[in-house]
Amino acid sequence: MCLEDIIRVIKGRRCVRSFREGEIPNEYIHKILEAGIWAPSGGNIQPWEFIVVRNRDMIDKIKLVSPGLFGDPSVIIVVCINLEKAKRGGRIGESMAIIDVSMAAQNIMLVAYALGIGSCPIVSFSKTAVKELLDIPKYVEPILLITLGYTDKWPNPPARRPLEEVVHYEKY
Q1: pTM of the model
Q2: How confident is the model at residue 39 (pLDDT cuts 50, 70, 90)?
Q3: For residue 144, what is the enclosing H or E element?
Q4: Using CA atoms, how far apart are residues 22 and 45, in angstroms rounded to an integer?
Q5: Domain residues of the chain, as ranges?
Q6: 16-150 carries CATH number 3.20.190.10
Q7: 88 CB contacts (<8 Å, ≥6 apart)?
Q8: ∠ CA 161-165-169 to the nearest 5 degrees?
Q9: N or C: which end of the chain has fewer CB within 10 A?
Q10: Cα dihedral sign for 157, 162, 163, 166?
């Protein structure tokens, strides 16, 4: 892959909230999840856990407790932190774990886009309800939902602040 392809994927990925019917092949889900586990991780702790939800009834139940989840995705990936693993990071373990799973989530969404699959990260959901629905153990904390599905229309890119406004060299 060349640099232009990587930049195209980074700039092309959008939050997709409108999905059409269409099953995502298992091999694509595998590639998407594999991208997640190759994210950087402080101390190589790898505190992430991923729960793949494909069952339509369960997706509908999760939607009921997730005000930020729009549309009818084919798949929801629940991105979690394993708190037992995060403890290995000492006093900054949980903070570092949030950064780690965030980078994993970005990898997941970039590879999904490269495969022609729309995605959207969702933080507006009831963690308690999702834990109960999915039988998530106490030492695992859901942090983010990522919806996946095919779309007929990719949203237009939002404006970005220019580099000159946000980059500082040597000092602020």
Answers
A1: 0.95
A2: very high
A3: strand 140-149
A4: 35
A5: 16-150
A6: no
A7: 43, 45
A8: 130
A9: C
A10: negative
